[in-house]
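Format notes (please read before filing issues)

Several people have asked whether sequences and structure tokens are stored in separate files. They are not. Every record keeps both together, in the order shown below: the sequence lines, then the token lines. Line labels are part of the format and must not be stripped during preprocessing.
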Amino acid sequence: MESALLYEFISNLNIYIVIFLIFTFFISGLIKGFLGLGLPSSAMGLLTLVIEPIHAISIMVAPIIFTNIAQFVRAPNPRKTMNDFKYFALLIIISIFLTSFFIKSYPTEVLTVAIGFAMIIFSINQLFGVKITIGPSKIWHVLMGIISGVLGGLSSIWSPPVAMYLIAREYTKDQFISITGFLFMVGGAPLGLGLYFAGVLNYLVVIQSFVALIFVLIGFRFGEILRGYISQKVFRYCVLIAFLLMGARLIFEGLM
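Then the structure lines:
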């Protein structure tokens, strides 16, 4: 049965869509490698041009998990990060799983708007350095963990609340990389598990997700290399403007 599904999928492939998907995964990995973030934001903005939002979210599971594992294990003080942010991570895990578990119950328009909303928050935050005052209380970990997880379960993008919290707390660059790697990594597994129980992450989609991972990792490596040759400020600005426009398009499309 599974091999028959795979054969049917391959025989119905549109070469132009395949080329576009490869381009999307490569560019998303390039952005992740160059900027250190933005993988699901860039991928979802392009994927939803040719495939349904639920399918796009499912395909991103493997790239999200493995790129952030690589980021976290190479970051400084991973054990301290895990201990300091265990409640934040726990709430992300629970809320992502519960939200994604019922993903087939949400209208496509809701998913489309959620993805667009996440992309706009992400781009505005990165462009203008939106900052709020947040104290050291662990209550913020609970609150931001829930918000991040719900947004992640709906759109596969839970970086905006995490990034805004870390900027508000004024963590150092090394701490930022370690914490984001950990919090993005832990959300990937419950997202995949929730999608599996919802019936949208099946054998065929898992294969697609790992194929996507190959091109994402290739792009990721190129991004790391290009970081030393191209003005990061200019590239970052262009990417974030593109995120802003793609997010606005998704919201407009979902509301119309």
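For reference, the curators noted about this record: The chain has a mean pLDDT of 84. The radius of gyration is 17 Å.
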